[in-house]
Design goal:
The protein is α/β, with parallel strands linked by helices. The strands form 2 sheets. A 6-stranded mixed beta sheet has the order 8-5-3-2-1-9, sandwiched between helices. Strands 4-6-7 form a 3-stranded mixed beta sheet.
Length: about 260
């Protein structure tokens, strides 16, 4: 698990947090025992956006705050490991972008979710003008980006912004249960390939996507995971996919002082 850890500010984001998040996520992605990653916030919020002191610091401070291009929130799409967001409370601005960088999103029904950029005189940041229309359609994307209005987790579920909306007391546990099911019952190779297929096919035409699918299907037929899945079913047991039979969802906070813990 990775947790944004500045609860006194509703986990308002700093450049230090962005750098730490990128390092933590890539480290977890390289660990063969990590089958899924849950991202959440400490305290009452997920991430309330950029720290207001950064915004008050003027253009130079804001430019220094922006993550490196390879660390923009959507870099998570290029990781092999599924990333699940547990949106436990308010999320806005760059926090919205990190939420959308995840693959599967759980939100508290009561959580307030907003892009906010237009209300600060800013533009659609962090690639959201590319991502949101693909996730929601042009109309809903424009609504959220143009108005900057706050919606609830329940509304976010209705429009497809999140996949699950649950009571705030349950949002983290249900996200972990989902991640645990992936870790225990799905082949890590399958998860990595499926994730790569989906994001690659967003940028390709149907013909090339089908050609790629056929090649990947053919390769999977010879792999050990299919044979193991069939054996496990016949023996009424859980499959042991890949070289690592166990799984890890990284432990909670290393240090209460760290702005991002994993």
């Amino acid at each position: 698990m990775v947790r944004f850890n500045r609860p006194d500010t509703l986990n308002a984001f700093t450049r230090t947090m962005g750098d730490a998040y990128a390092v933590a996520m890539r480290q977890l992605d390289r660990d063969p025992l990590v089958r899924a990653i849950v991202v959440t916030g400490s305290g009452r919020g997920f991430c309330s956006g950029a720290d207001v002191e950064v915004l008050r610091g003027g253009p130079a401070a804001i430019r220094a705050f922006i993550p490196a291009r390879e660390d923009m929130p959507s870099f998570v799409h290029r990781l092999s490991t599924p990333v699940i967001a547990a949106v436990n409370g308010p999320v806005a601005g760059i926090g919205f972008a990190y939420m959308m960088g995840s693959d599967v999103r759980f939100a508290a029904r009561e959580a307030k979710i907003a892009t906010t950029f237009a209300r600060l005189g800013l533009v659609a940041e962090y690639g959201l003008s590319w991502l949101l229309p693909r996730a929601l359609g042009v109309g809903r994307a424009l609504d959220l980006l143009l108005s900057g209005r706050a919606i609830t987790g329940a509304e976010a579920l209705e429009m497809g912004l999140v996949q699950f909306a649950v009571p705030v007391a349950d949002v983290f546990t249900t996200a972990v249960e989902y991640a645990t099911d992936l870790a225990l019952n799905c082949a890590s190779t399958s998860l990595a390939v499926i994730k790569a297929q989906v994001y690659a096919d967003l940028e390709d035409n149907e013909t090339r996507a089908l050609e790629r699918t056929v090649r990947l299907m053919d390769r999977s037929f010879d792999g050990p995971d299919l044979a193991e899945a069939l054996s496990a079913r016949s023996e009424s047991r859980r499959p042991l996919f890949g070289a690592a039979a166990g799984y890890v969802i990284a432990p909670d906070a290393r240090s209460a002082a760290s702005p991002v813990s994993s």
